[in-house]
């Protein structure tokens, strides 16, 4: 009997340990099932976000294509306008050159008509005034003087008086009276 009791006790002990193990394993299974459910929910959220992002990307891609097409059309129109402007400018330039050439041609024809009335004998030395006979390019300077400390970079005649203004590298402007025959600075 003792042996039976020992076997029963061992069987009870084994049953108790197995019951504890079953309870522990059921708790672990429940934990894994909850974790699996949470992962499935998270996976579904990620799939939904991915799908939303894919739709947004598709929409933005279509919008980009539309903007690129509009940009291409605008550039083509701008090229057409520029081409028309260039053609118009070329046409205006050609008209201007044509008118200028026609005017010059008319002036040349008028000048040629004026010359037809003159005979070669009319160009004798008796008909030419003394100014033309005396005019010549000077071969030597009539007056020489030092105007500035270094080289002269500008010379300007006064339209009113016989005054010359000179500017040099010494950064000074000097006025000279040429009517007196000497170059006295003012």
TrEMBL record:
Residues 1-90 form the Autophagy-related protein domain. Keywords: Coiled coil, Repeat, WD repeat. InterPro entries: ATG16, Autophagy-rel_prot_16_dom, WD40/YVTN_repeat-like_dom_sf, WD40_repeat_CS, WD40_repeat_dom_sf, WD40_rpt. CDD domains: Atg16_CCD (cd22887). WD repeats lie at residues 145-186. GO terms for molecular function: protein-membrane adaptor activity. One of its GO terms (biological process) is autophagosome assembly. One of its GO terms (cellular component) is Atg12-Atg5-Atg16 complex. Belongs to the WD repeat ATG16 family. This is Autophagy-related protein 16 domain-containing protein. It comes from Homalodisca liturata. The lineage of its organism: Eukaryota, Metazoa, Ecdysozoa, Arthropoda, Hexapoda.
């Amino acid at each position: 009997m003792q042996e039976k009791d020992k076997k029963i006790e061992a069987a009870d002990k084994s049953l108790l340990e197995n019951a504890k193990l079953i309870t522990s394993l059921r708790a672990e299974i429940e934990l894994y099932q909850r974790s699996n459910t949470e992962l499935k929910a998270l996976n579904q959220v990620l799939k939904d976000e991915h799908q939303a992002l894919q739709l947004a990307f598709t929409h933005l891609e279509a919008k980009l294509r539309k903007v690129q097409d509009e940009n291409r059309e605008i550039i083509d129109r701008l090229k057409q306008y520029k081409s028309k402007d260039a053609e118009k400018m070329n046409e205006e330039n050609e008209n201007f050159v044509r008118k200028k050439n026609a005017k010059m041609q008319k002036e040349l024809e008028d000048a040629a008509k004026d010359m037809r009335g003159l005979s070669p004998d009319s160009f004798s030395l008796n008909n030419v005034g003394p100014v033309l006979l005396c005019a010549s390019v000077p071969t030597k300077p009539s007056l020489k003087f030092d105007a500035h400390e270094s080289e002269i970079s500008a010379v300007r005649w006064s339209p009113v008086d016989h005054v010359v203004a000179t500017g040099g590298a010494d950064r000074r402007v000097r006025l000279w009276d040429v009517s007196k025959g000497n170059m006295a600075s003012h």
